[in-house]
Amino acid sequence: MRRSLSALLRLVVLISLFSCATASAQLPAEEVGTAELPPPRDSWLMVRAFTDGNYIFDAEDGQMQGLVPHHLYTPALVTVPERGEIYHVDSFLTRRELGERNDVLMVVDLKTLTTKAEIDIPDKAAALPHRGHIALLGDDRHLVVYNLTPAQSVSVVDVIDREFDGEIATPGCAVSLPVEQRAFLMICADGALQLIELDADGKELRRDRSEPFFLPDQDPVFALNILTADGWLLISHDGLAYRVAVEKGRVSVSEPKDLLDTADHEQQWRPGGEQPFSVHRPSNRMYVLMHQGGVDTHAQPGAEVWVYDLESMRRVQRMLLEAAAMHLLVSQQEEPRLYVLGVDARLRIFDGRQLRLLRIIDQLGAWPGMLQLLARHD
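RE: above sequence
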């Protein structure tokens, strides 16, 4: 009986091996290569997955187009579609979370999402997933990276010649808001703005500083800044909006306008979230995540989206969200699309004018977060 069972088992194994060999012989040879993305559309956006990178989706059909992989602590990306390049910072450690550190600016091919170049920079880049921590200036050549070690500074990189141009100390000032040709603003801890202008070689040429216009210990402005058609918009935790621009080399800050009326303040409405503001520049409308809460609740998710006309700073629409959200972004198409990332890890896409839900994208990677357009600034 044992001999018969053993013979039967051998027969089964031989048949299985023969079947596998036959099936393998019938499979066509796999072709290995690199696929290319088509030119980016205005409907494309990126969703940062904490452990994976930035997933690229087409909001029109919800399909994923590709992935820009990066290190766990990489800050935001700068994309230049007309040049076909993406820029982002990576910090590499010799023993994963330990060991010698090496920071580089990565140049990624937008067609293949593969690395084209690596530019060594000081090992000081702030490991924060914030859009304002990396910025391409108006000359399309110089890019600045915010450093925090804990001393504050920026690294200047020439992305055309692929070289590090130098480091500029910026004590007490953070994030970068590009203005004019080769200049950028920074928000400072005393409530002022600092302007730094570079020369053609990426070296500091001059500085200017505004008078303090907000009280950091009472009503600070959000570090997330909004690019408008004629400058930048800074919004405080209590809902005060400041228009910022550079005029003839000098920093200009408007008188604040309150986004909230008396009833809103009484009901304790205020902006909040990690990415609570976005502006559709063609229509001059701003979208804001709003929640009800007291002082220092600016990091709470928004329960509603409020839409403002930027000319009058008056609310023109209001939408209750199905799920509270930490991230909001609007496309720059003529017919805008509003992207809202809920705390339920679902990306809801709305018609930006009617606030009508169009579709939901569920598969966003692990711990999805910051939303970006494929543009220099969004």
